[in-house]
Amino acid sequence: MNIKILGAFAAVALLAACSSDKTAATQPTNPVSTGPVPGSQEDLVANVGDRVFYDFNMSALKAEGKATLDRQAAWLAKWAKNSVQVAGNCDERGTSEYNLALGNRRAKASADYLKAKGVAASRITTISFGKDRPTALGSNEQAWAQNRNAITSVK
Known about the structure:
Elements: H1 2-18, H2 22-26, H3 41-47, E1 51-53, H4 63-78, E2 84-89, H5 96-116, E3 124-130, H6 141-147, E4 149-154
Parallel strand pairs: 2-3
Antiparallel strand pairs: 1-4, 2-4
């Protein structure tokens, strides 16, 4: 009998804990809108853009890519303590060796543009992933176009 009474008290205590004031739970604890931390990778992506795209088998910058890199250079001037890595990528077509070399040319083209805009060379490293790190899955022109890029990442 003592076990039944103890079980009933436990059930009542559990129900009492569940019936707390619902209005407190629905109110935000921090009413200030939060966005990306200024100077972070998320800030770069959200407010500037972290990648430029290339045409098939090309490493020449297009006008849209230059505009993105102009914004990146201005952002890097504002956040002078940040260093970045520029990673060149390719679509899945071609040999691994060819795509590593092409990815390197793409990363170098983007890095050279940033340097020409005043970003210190000591703040930029480059790497090529070739076709090993696709950002879009698929074997069609839409996916390939997304994978032909150079991505800037805050280190």
